[in-house]
Amino acid sequence: MKPPYGRNRVVIEGVKPQIDSGRHPVCRIVGDDVVVTAAIFADGHDHLAAQLHYQRSTERRWRSTPMTPVNNDIWTGSFKVDKLGGWRFTILGWVDHFITWESELRKRLAAQDPALAAAPEPEPVPDDSGGWTLPTVTGEQNIPLALRTGAILIKQAASRAHGPDARRLLEAGRSLNEKADRNDAYYEYPLDDEIVELVERYPDQTFATRYEPELSVWVDRERAGFSAWYELFPRSASPVPGKHGTFADVEKQLPEIAAMGFDIVYMPPIHPIGRAFRKGPENSTTANPGDPGSPWAIGDKSPDPSGPSRVKEDDGGHKSIHAELGTYADFDHLVATTREHGMEIALDIAFQCSPDHPWVTEHPTWFNIRPDGSIQYAENPPKKYQDIYPLNFESPDWRSLWDELYSVFEFWIKRGVYVFRVDNPHTKALPFWEWCLGTLHAKYPETIFLAEAFTRPHVMYWLAKAGYTQSYTYFTWRNSKAELQSYLEEITRPPVSEFFRPNFWPNTPDILHKTLQDGGRPAFMFRLVLAATLTANYGIYGPAYELCENAPAKPAAGKTESEEYLMSEKYEIFQRDRNAPGSLVPLITLINQIRRGNPALQRNESLLFHPTDNPNLLAYSKSTPDFSNIILVIVNLDPYNQQSGWTDLDLLRMGLVPGTDFDVEDLLNGPSYTWHGRRNYVVLRPGIQAAHLFRVVRMP
Questions:
Q1: Is 313 a catalytic residue?
Q2: Which of 71, 94, 354, 425 could be 208's S-S partner, Cβ–Cβ 3.0 to 4.6 Å?
Q3: What is the value of pTM for the model shown?
Q4: Whose CA is closest to 158, among 177, 176, 171?
C-alpha cells in the first residue's frame, strides 16, 4: 500500500523540547519563550519553509510563527506562553516553490551578459505566422519563461489571499507576464520586498508535512520557578514553654518570617494525631501522657473533649484539623493573613493513616491485610512505624480510594491553599499521581506540588513528568566539589531541566546531614549559600536552621551514624528564639534580599561552573539572557580551615570580553574590586566569610 502522504516530501525529526516522545509535557513559567528546534529537510535542492504552530489547550485556533534555518538542516522558532495551564505545539514544513523560483531567478539574472544592458533595442523580425516579434537575446537563461513561471506562482498565492492582498498579487502576476512579453535584452530583478512578503503570507501548504504527535507544554506561575520555603511546626509556635501552639501563634511569627524574605510557610500535617501506638521522644514506641505524637500519624476519629466541637466535614482524618491548633475559621484566617504578608501557606499531604483514622474502619480494603487479619503497619527494616498504616493501591476498591485522595487536595484548595508538599509520593502508585495531578492542574492550574521523594532517579524524574511542580533532591548528600558540579550539571540542563525543578533543602526534620553535625555554624552558613544560589527554589527547616542545631540522635542498631535530630520536633514540642545570639537570621535575610534583587539567581539554566586550583573552592556564575545581571559565587566547602586559590573564569560565556578588566561588588561582605581577566586570587575564612557573592559590573 502506498502511503496517502506520498507527495509530502519534507521530513521533520529531532524536535526539541519534548519528553518521552511527547507523552509528558515540558515545563515552563508564565512569560517564558518556548524555543523549538528541529531537523527539517527534503530531497533535492528545493527551498523549504516551516512554521511553528502553537495554542493553549483551551483554544480552537492555532497560532503560527515562521521558523528559520540555522545550519545543517536545523531550524528554530519560538513562542511566548503568557497564560497558566496547558499549551501544545507542532511544526509544519513544506517545499516552498515560490522561494525556490525566486532564488533561481536571481541566479539567472546574475548570469546575464552585462554588455547586453547597454545594447541597442533589437529590431522586430517576421515570425512563422506572418507577423513580427522581438528576438530573444537573453541567451540560455530564458528569463521570460522564468517570469511566466513566477507569474503562475504569484497568481496561485492570490487565490489563497483576500481583499487588497489578492488584488495586489494579481497585479504583480500580470506585471511579470508583461515583462516576459517584452523579451528585453537585459532584465532587472522584477519584484519588490512587499510582493515577496505577500506571497509568503499565503503559502501553498497542500503537501506540507505536519509533525506528529503534537507536543505539550505545562505553564506554571512565577512562584513555581522562584521561591524560598520556610518550614515550621505550628504546635511549637507558642511563646509559652511547653504549651501547644496554635494557628494564631503562627500568625504572630509571620512578620519575622516575611522579613527574612521567605515566600512560602510550610507546615507539617495539621490533622488529628492517632493515639494507638503513639510515638514518644526519640521515636520511642512508648508515649508518656501528654506526648503529642508524630503529625504524620494522621487520624483520630474520636473528638478531643478539650478541643473545639467538630463540624460536618470534620471526620478526624485528612480533612480535619488538630483540635489544639484551632478551628477551620482560625485556619482560614491564617491563610488570609499569610497572603497579606506576601507569602503562602503550604500544607503537608501525607497519604497514610494512624490506626485511629476513620478510613481504617470505614474502608478496611484500602489497607494491606496480613495473614492473621491485622493491618500491615509501615516498615523500612529495621525501622518500624507501628503508628502508621500505608495505603494499598492494589485494593479492589482502588477507584474509590483514588477519588477520596483527590478530594483531600480539593478540600484544602477550596480553603485557599494552593501549595502542597507531598510526603513520600514514590510509595504511592505512579498511575494515581498522573491522574490526580493532571486532573487537579486542569481545574486549578495555579497549584504547586513539591515532591518529597528521596528515591531512585528514574522514579524522581517520573514524578516530575507526571505533574510535580518542584522536587526535593540529593543536594543534602552532595558535598564535595565534584559531586555538586556533576549533580547540578545533570539537573539544570536538558533533558532533565525540561521537566524537573529542583528545590534544595540543607536540612529537614528527618535529615541532619553529617556535614552539619560536624561542621557546625560554618557548615550551616556555606550550605545555605549553596542551596539559595545554585537553584532558584530552596527551603530550610527552622528555627533549627537559624540556630544551627546539629546534635544527632543515637545511631540505630547496626548503624555507625544517624541523620535524625537528638531532640526531634517530630515527636516533641520545642519553643525556640530564632533571634538568639549567633542566629543566622541576618545572613538568611541578606541572602534572600540578594536573590530577590538579582534576576540571574531566579533561574537555573544559566548556571556555569568555573575551574579553581583548590578543590575546596567551588566557583559558579549565573546570568540573565542579555547579561544585564551577572552573579559570580565562590564558596569555601571546608567548614574548618581558611581556603584560598586562583579562579579561571570562562569570561566569554559570562558575557564578558576576555582579557578585559571588570568590577565586582561583594554583595555578602561589602567591598568592590576590579578584576583583571579570568584569573583572580580569593581567600575565604569559615564562619566569617562563607562565600563571595559578587555582582559583576561591566567597565564603561
A1: no
A2: 94
A3: 0.91
A4: 171
